[in-house]
Amino acid sequence: MPELPEVETMRRGILSIIGGKVTDVAKPPCARRPILLAPGIAAFRRRTVDRRVTAIDRVGKRVVIVLEGGDRIVLEPRMTGLVLVADPPTREHLRWEMSLADCGVEKVWFWDRRGLGSVRLFSEREFVAEFSESGKIGPDALVISWQELRDRLAKSRRAVKVALLDQKGVCGVGNLYAAELLHVAKVHPATPCEALSTAAWKRIHAAMVDVLQEAIKYEGSTLGDGTYRNALNKDGGYQNCHRVYGREGELCRTCGKVEVIRIVQAQRATFYCERCQKVTL
């Protein structure tokens, strides 16, 4: 589930390790489905121990730990992964840990209940090839201009909600925030991209930035299953601000006139208000 606001919260939650020296990297015993860990732990340890952390970045829905010399540890939470500096929710789902000195933080953990996430180590050149030159990742949702957003998506015949989930077009937006931002923009989620006007693209872009920044301020959304937690193993707060997501059958919080509707698009649940989000451009 973690999308841009949750992953950005994870990134900010481990900023205190900058300047710290890696003293060990380990793969805790885990009887659950294994995550992707590359390279193997022995090679991982050789390339990271005694290196200092120089920066903490983010690429879309991934936290990036930059080490002196240019190597980068990329932590991808996928559905249920967490990046933590406090005690994890459980020990049985710990997948990776990094011990540090000289920064006030003893360990960074990667915890993943379902085992769909990954921890990968890249050289600087490998990182650029994978995340900049491959075309797999589009511009970040908080950086892209409205013109580029329009130019990258406007020719598509796909529904705008579905197109926003394609990380090649714009990265960081997932199912939850796509529904929320389209509600704020007053755009019906089934509208084909090619049918949207320039004014609609401007509204979508403005809503995307506003919703994501607001969600970051509240440290992301912890849904009913309680899986998402910040780096200190605490709930986010933005779930209390959701306008439509997960509110099927409730009165729309914007208009207060009609109930929120749930439909399925590309095998994902979409929530919207038919009064606020009419099929008009």
From TrEMBL:
Lyase keyword on record: yes
Keywords: DNA damage, DNA repair, DNA-binding, Glycosidase, Hydrolase, Lyase, Metal-binding, Multifunctional enzyme, Zinc, Zinc-finger
Single GO MF annotation: class I DNA-(apurinic or apyrimidinic site) endonuclease activity
Cofactor(s) essential for the protein: Zn(2+)
Catalyzed reactions: Hydrolysis of DNA containing ring-opened 7-methylguanine residues, releasing 2,6-diamino-4-hydroxy-5-(N-methyl)formamidopyrimidine; 2'-deoxyribonucleotide-(2'-deoxyribose 5'-phosphate)-2'-deoxyribonucleotide-DNA = a 3'-end 2'-deoxyribonucleotide-(2,3-dehydro-2,3-deoxyribose 5'-phosphate)-DNA + a 5'-end 5'-phospho-2'-deoxyribonucleoside-DNA + H(+)
Family: Belongs to the FPG family.
Protein name: Formamidopyrimidine-DNA glycosylase
